[in-house]
Amino acid sequence: MHAWICDNPIGPQALTWKEVPTPEPKAGEVRVAIRAASLNFPDLLIVQNKYQMKPPLPFVPGSEFSGVVEAVGEGVRHVKPGDAVAAFGGLGGFGTQAVVPAASVVPLPAGFSFPDAAAFLCTYGTSHHALMDRAALKPGETVLVLGAAGGVGTAAIQIAKAAGARVIAAASSDDKCALCREIGADATINYSTGHLRDEIKALTDGKGPDVVYDPVGGDLAEPVFRSIGWRGRYLVIGFAQGSIPSLPLNLALLKGASIVGVFWGEFARREPQRNAQALTELATWYAQGKIRPVIEHQLAMTDLPKAFDLMAARQVRGKLVLTNPA
């Protein structure tokens, strides 16, 4: 098999495409022939040694992928060789094969394409857990989505609309705002040109949003939290801007608001039954056409360096997917 190897975590420039021995699955493991893998922001952090998980060297990055089961280890019952699956394994996705724990592998329903499946579990799992579980989103509530044209942002827009909410999408360009309206946002804010707090106030009749979905962090966090509605829920998804904000806690007191952490990977590990229920609902919405990953770039697996360059230049709307020949 071939894979992108990280043996010096100083950034994507140190990755090398190498031929390595094809591993055999042990008990409770599955080997998947990878058809497609998606690029997520944590994939960049992990090869820069900036992620909370620091795997032993060398390792193959790539947390999310889809493909066909080639072999299963002892005790694996829910999938068999030949099955189409998606996996969120944390590592191993940027290659031609990967061995992952069977618990991280989900059988794909008929009609689920490999590129869509590779772009699905992490972003839609995160956004569903955030909005439906952590925020307890109700029909008719208003959700403000920051970084709305990215992978988790586009998923959040679609899930909030499927749940009956009103969505205000905030993004960094007019082009990205247009994409958000195309996939269902009721209103948009270009926060690179406008006055963010004034626009939030105008679009919510002065009440503020009920839920804020924030994968950006940085200097957007405080003005947005100052704008949140009474009993608002501020969802901490990540820090794509790079800096981790510090919020004055008196604002939470004055607004009766909650700052809510969202860590889908840990939720899936600790509460697998609830995660399975969420994924079942998401698969139903996908089959009904209510949600579908936005994939702007589809590159060959060997083009991973170009994919990282696009992500670093903030030129990815939705998700970026890498594919292997069938």
TrEMBL record:
Q: Which GO-annotated molecular functions does the record name?
A: oxidoreductase activity; zinc ion binding
Any matching Pfam family: ADH_N
Coiled-coil segments, which residues? none
Under SMART domains, the record lists: PKS_ER (SM00829)
Q: Where is the Enoyl reductase (ER) domain?
A: 11-322
Q: What is the designated name of this protein?
A: NADPH:quinone oxidoreductase
Record the organism: Caldimonas caldifontis
